[in-house]
Amino acid sequence: MEKDILILGIESSCDETAAAVIKNGRTVLSNVISSQIDLHTLYGGVVPEIASRKHVERINQVIEGALKEAQVTLEEIDAIGVTYGPGLVGALLVGVAEAKAIAFALNKPLVGVHHIEGHIAANFIEHKELEPPFFSLVVSGGHTHLVKVTDYGEFEIIGRTRDDAAGEAFDKVARAIGLGYPGGPKIDKVSKEGNPHAIEFPRASITDAPFDFSFSGVKSSVLNYLNGQKMKGEEFNQADVAASFQKAVVDVLVDHTMLAAKEYQMKSIAIAGGVASNSSLRKAMKEACDKAGITLYYPSPIYCTDNAAMIGVAAYYEYLKGTRSGWDLNAVPNLKLGER
Ligand code: KG4
Ligand code: ZN
After folding, report:
1. What is the pLDDT of residues 93-109, one digit of tens each?
2. Which residues hold their Cβ within 5 A of ligand 2, which is an ion?
3. Does the beta carbon of 87 lie inside 6 Å of ligand 1?
């Protein structure tokens, strides 16, 4: 029998300090996440300085926790995978420095991972049959991309947002209607009590770029609506605004993804990123995929939002391909997908 390959994954690009141990690319032996959400909630969003400081305080404990839960020692690990971009530079640096120190001290291979490659790879954990090629809609707080995954770690970007990311729009609208941070899960929840047809918010398309997205218009339209109500001295219905906004975003995400999947004749779609845990998006994507004879995949919510298991999985496939990072690996806050 061949020896198992164990990867230690480390993630610190935003407001979660996370470490995980992955066996043979698809089995999660441990997945430890220390969230800072409570701290940032006080400020209505992620404060980069606080994020970096908390990562420094927590990273050793989180890694020790991941090793302990997986019942493996550092010596047994075959490679260290770490997110080196995109993200907040100070936050990324904590994970990168830690991964370099461990890899150097133990003379183990170091594999720098693109955060979005990690989000997409999260789909491999629970869907053992999923293999490239497939189509992916990546929707997170910082990114909205339509990607053709041609092979492990090989991507063709088909569409992207021209302005706000989908998650960013959720967070901003949530703040405007008094739901607070993080907005996505809160809008998801209150929308269940609201009427998605109560207010008609715009669904933006870009001429000549049918697979690109724009969410600044729908966000401004919500703000205008709220202002209009205020001027008239009228209340607004929080659940109706949330549900109508969510429907406008979900409609565009589903339409553009299905259009692209048909154009590129893809038979499977995997959604990824924090917004992929949105219940309305999952439902609408499922209906559209069933109708089109396309298989839909999505990770459990815990693997949709930031975690290190997905980084360990992506690192495993990069490790198999021979990808190795040097001791000069640095944080790259605006790293592009498919770049090294
Ligand atoms: O992937 P992620 O954890 O971090 C980034 O890489 O950005 O995504 C976080 C984003 C936030 O904007 C959050 O509001 C959104 O994902 N989100 C959701 C839901 N859960 C998280 N948006 C809509 N519905 C949800 N259920
Ligand atoms: Zn993320």
Report:
1. 999 999 999 999 999 99
2. 140, 306
3. no
